[in-house]
Structures are given as structure tokens and as C-alpha cells.
From TrEMBL:
<feature type="domain" description="Hemerythrin-like">
    <location>
        <begin position="16"/>
        <end position="153"/>
    </location>
</feature>
<protein>
    <submittedName>
        <fullName>Hemerythrin domain-containing protein</fullName>
    </submittedName>
</protein>
<dbReference type="InterPro" id="IPR012312">
    <property type="entry name" value="Hemerythrin-like"/>
</dbReference>
<feature type="region of interest" description="Disordered">
    <location>
        <begin position="213"/>
        <end position="232"/>
    </location>
</feature>
<dbReference type="Pfam" id="PF01814">
    <property type="entry name" value="Hemerythrin"/>
</dbReference>
Length: 232
């Protein structure tokens, strides 16, 4: 039986859950993309995979997790021993993320650099294994936050706490959560959209990326269009 998600009555809770959806979709897309290329016995678009890992590093790792560890978690510490133990584990996860993403980037570089040699399949397997482990690790992490920490925050924090959190959380947001990306990031998302479009139907992820990469109201460009991000 699935655990019910918290009712989102504060902007900061809503932002956390939307950013979780964006990160989940990106992680699942990378794993699916790798599986699809393995099934076809083809090499992936390495530039697109690099762009996807860059997104995970640039938004979830550098913006989302610090907002939780620095702003939300301290307000919940001391509530009870179980909560403190859960927060310790989540803070350790956040601290581990930086190193984990570097290992992933190195494994991808190894796969790319050695793809023309007899090491190609071993390097592919190394990257797939690390990527799957990273995705499972963060999907479980987000599940714990949504089932244990957010409901507790909802029930114990004061109006003053929420006013402070909401102001801080609204300051920096992941562009894959329903608002326009900064111009500088549009080529990044366009590159990812292009790779996903040519690798099967990734549904929600593709729509989220397309709306972040393109002007509001514009349909995604057809395959082959420069904004589709192909080029490899
Ligand atoms: Fe987190
Ligand atoms: Fe989170």
C-alpha cells in the first residue's frame, strides 16, 4: 500500500515536492535511456548524458538539498530521538551526494573515452551500475522526506517558521518545476529534450524539459530542428 503524500498547504512544502518530482523524473529517464541503448546495443548521446548529470549537480545537489539541510531540518531537530536520527541520515545523504555525482561523472567520462576500445562494455556496465545505485539512493531519500519529515513539519512548525521558510524557498527554484528556465540554461534542457525524443517516449519528463527549454506557449520543436538539441 502506498503512503499518502502530505497535503501541501505551504509554498515551501509544495516547492520541495515539485523539485522531488523533477529529480525523480530525471533520474528515471537516465536509467531508462541507458537501458534502451543497452537493449539496442548502441552508444548513448554522451553530451546529453553529461547535460543530465550537470542538471542533477546544478539544481538538486546545489540548491534543493542545501535548502533542506540549512533551513528546514534545523527547525525540526530536538522534536524527538527518532526524528533526530532520521535527520542525521538525511543530512549524511546530502553530504554524500557531492562525492557521488563526481564518481558518476568520472564513470561517464570513462565510458565515453573508452567507448571505441575493448573496454567499452565493461565501462558501460560500471556507469550503469553506479547510475542505478545513485537513482535508487535518492528515490529512497526523497520517499523518507515525504513520508516522515514533511508531515512532521506540517504539524509542528509555527506561522513565523513558515513565513521564513517560504521566503527562502521561493528565492531559488529548479526550472523543471513549472516555470521558465534562465536563458543560460535553455541550451542545456534543449540538448536533453533532443536525446529523450530520439530514445522513445519519456512522457512527463519530456514535457517538463520542453517547457523549461522553450518560450512559454511554444510547442516542442520537431526532430531535426536546431532547438531540439541534436548534434551528435
Ligand atoms: Fe533531501
Ligand atoms: Fe528533498
Amino acid at each position: 500500500m502506498s503512503t499518502p503524500r502530505p497535503t501541501l498547504t505551504h509554498p515551501s512544502l509544495s516547492i520541495i515536492c515539485h523539485e522531488h518530482r523533477a529529480l525523480s523524473a530525471m533520474l528515471r529517464s537516465i536509467v531508462l535511456l541507458l537501458r534502451e541503448h543497452r537493449r539496442r546495443n548502441t552508444l548513448p548521446d554522451f553530451d546529453a548524458l553529461q547535460a543530465m548529470l550537470f542538471y542533477v549537480d546544478e539544481f538538486p545537489e546545489k540548491l534543493h538539498h542545501p535548502k533542506e539541510s540549512r533551513l528546514l531540518f534545523p527547525k525540526l531537530r530536538g522534536h524527538d530521538a527518532h526524528t533526530d536520527a532520521v535527520l542525521d541520515r538525511l543530512d549524511r545523504d546530502h553530504a554524500h551526494g557531492e562525492q557521488a555525482i563526481r564518481e558518476l561523472e568520472h564513470a561517464l567520462l570513462g565510458f565515453r573515452t573508452m567507448s571505441g576500445t575493448r573496454q567499452c562494455e565493461a565501462r558501460r556496465a560500471d556507469f550503469e551500475t553506479l547510475m542505478k545505485k545513485y537513482a535508487e539512493f535518492y528515490l529512497d531519500h526523497m520517499h523518507v522526506e515525504e513520508t516522515e519529515i514533511l508531515p512532521l513539519a506540517q504539524s509542528v512548525l509555527s506561522d513565523d517558521d513558515w513565513a521564513e521558510l517560504d521566503a527562502a524557498f521561493l528565492l531559488n527554484r529548479d526550472p523543471l518545476t513549472g516555470h521558465q528556465a534562465d536563458e543560460a540554461y535553455k541550451p542545456l534542457f534543449a540538448r536533453i529534450v533532443g536525446a529523450l525524443r530520439h530514445s522513445g517516449n519519456f512522457g512527463t519528463m519530456l514535457e517538463a524539459l520542453a517547457s523549461a527549454a522553450l518560450p512559454t506557449g511554444s510547442p516542442p520543436p520537431p526532430p531535426g530542428h536546431p532547438a531540439g538539441g541534436e548534434g551528435s
